[in-house]
């Protein structure tokens, strides 16, 4: 049996980092920037080399998918892995990955006077002796999520070279525009016929995240009555004061600056007003579906109370859901999580169920009926010039994905719940 090919993973990672795939919030194109298609086409060729089947790229959703065919006669449902090709909103031109072999644990001087220091980023100490890859200081690196892509390819290469290892159909999907929350929303999952999947986006080895926020946004309008202040007695209704009364009605402690882990919050985005008219924009976030609904009810209730007090339907509310946590769906299918926990334990990784305090591709894909938790990609300090990853972490990711595919063959017939039936 051959080993996980670390130099292959490293080469692919460095090559892909150099392609500028920064996504663009302002663009309405699919995908939002052409560099993303360039990289998808490069990966498409790689999938062909690795012998994948049913490779396809669709211009409609800009997703590239392919399948590593099953090597077993046992009954196993198809599983999938997902990584995104775009990078965050930070300089991505002429990215020059720096490879520091046998990292000695010392600070690293980057361009523009930046220093990647162990005092500021103590997690570097975990990687002494490994091959550390950084940007040169003038750009981001793009480990988010090219480390996920490189790890995925490492898994495919290993399984191809070791065809005696039994696994079911393993699908892979590479998509655009994750950083701006647009890519996976468009993904036509008919092209991805898996029972469940995992995103490989951020996180540390051993992490699994399947609960993210439920998210809603609201605009509240307040209409006052303007009269001369000298003759205002019993007549004036001040919209700006109504707006502040509304804010006073929200729980003061449930704000982002007071929230962490599984806490939810209300956040006032803007509060503009005068006597005549005021407008408040806010967002609501909560991991728990019930308390998410309660938070929305509180807002509706406050609007009702103010209307009762001031009459004439002076306060109007527009509220809509933005995205849903996949937590409820995934909790109904504990096998999807247990399989990963089992693989982690087999590899000696310490499993950690973590909250993901933001949206992910997995939210959108789960909403389309495919339970999709997030695992990890092994990088750190994402979205800026101090980003780094080690070759060893990406190889560990590849090894973990191999283990998940192997364990799925062993555990599939012993699950407590029956496999999820999907209309592909
Ligand atoms: Zn990402």
UniProtKB/TrEMBL annotation:
Keywords: Aminopeptidase, Hydrolase, Metal-binding, Metalloprotease, Protease, Zinc
EC code: 3.4.11.4
Catalysed reaction equations from the record: Release of the N-terminal residue from a tripeptide
GO BP term, example: proteolysis
PROSITE patterns xref list: ARGE_DAPE_CPG2_1, ARGE_DAPE_CPG2_2
GO cellular component terms, semicolon-separated: cytosol
Similarity comment text for this entry: Belongs to the peptidase M20B family.
Protein name, per record: Peptidase T
Native source species: Lactobacillus taiwanensis
């Amino acid at each position: 049996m051959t080993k996980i090919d670390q130099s292959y993973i490293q080469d692919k990672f460095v090559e892909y980092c150099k392609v500028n795939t920064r996504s663009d919030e302002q663009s309405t194109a699919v995908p939002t920037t052409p560099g993303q298609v360039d990289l998808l086409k490069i990966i498409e060729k790689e999938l062909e080399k690795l012998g994948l089947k049913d490779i396809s790229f669709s211009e409609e959703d800009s997703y590239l998918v392919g399948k590593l065919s099953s090597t077993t006669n046992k009954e196993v449902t198809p599983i999938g892995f997902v990584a995104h090709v775009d990078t965050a909103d930070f300089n991505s031109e002429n990215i020059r990955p720096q490879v520091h072999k046998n990292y000695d644990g010392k600070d690293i001087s980057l361009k523009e006077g930046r220093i990647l220091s162990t005092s500021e980023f103590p997690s570097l100490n975990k990687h002494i002796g490994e091959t550390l890859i950084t940007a040169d200081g003038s750009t981001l690196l793009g480990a988010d999520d090219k480390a996920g892509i490189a790890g995925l390819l490492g898994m495919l290469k290993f399984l191809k070279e070791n065809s005696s290892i039994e696994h079911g159909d393993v699908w892979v999907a590479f998509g655009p525009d994750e950083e701006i929350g647009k890519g996976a929303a468009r993904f036509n999952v008919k092209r991805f016929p898996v029972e469940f999947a995992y995103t490989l986006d951020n996180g540390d080895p051993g992490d699994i995240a399947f609960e993210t926020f439920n998210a809603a946004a609201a605009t509240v309008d307040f209409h006052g009555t303007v009269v001369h202040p000298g003759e205002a007695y019993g007549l004036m209704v001040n919209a700006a004061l109504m707006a502040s009364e509304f804010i006073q009605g929200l729980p003061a402690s449930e704000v982002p600056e007071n929230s962490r882990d599984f806490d939810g919050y209300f956040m006032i985005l803007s509060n503009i007003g005068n006597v005549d008219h005021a407008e408040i924009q806010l967002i609501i976030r909560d991991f728990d579906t019930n308390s998410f609904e309660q938070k929305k009810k509180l807002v509706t209730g406050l609007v009702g109370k103010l209307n009762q007090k001031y009459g004439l339907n002076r306060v109007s509310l527009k509220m809509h859901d933005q995205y849903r946590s996949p937590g409820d769906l995934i909790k109904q299918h504990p096998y999807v999580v247990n399989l990963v926990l089992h693989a982690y334990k087999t590899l000696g990784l310490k499993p950690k169920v973590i909250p993901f305090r933001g949206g992910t591709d997995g939210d959108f894909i789960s909403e389309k009926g495919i339970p999709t938790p997030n695992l990890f990609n092994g990088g750190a300090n994402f979205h800026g010039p101090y980003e780094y990853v080690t070759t060893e972490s990406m190889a560990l990711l590849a090894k973990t994905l191999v283990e998940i595919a192997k364990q799925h063959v062993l555990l599939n017939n012993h699950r407590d719940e029956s496999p999820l039936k999907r209309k592909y």
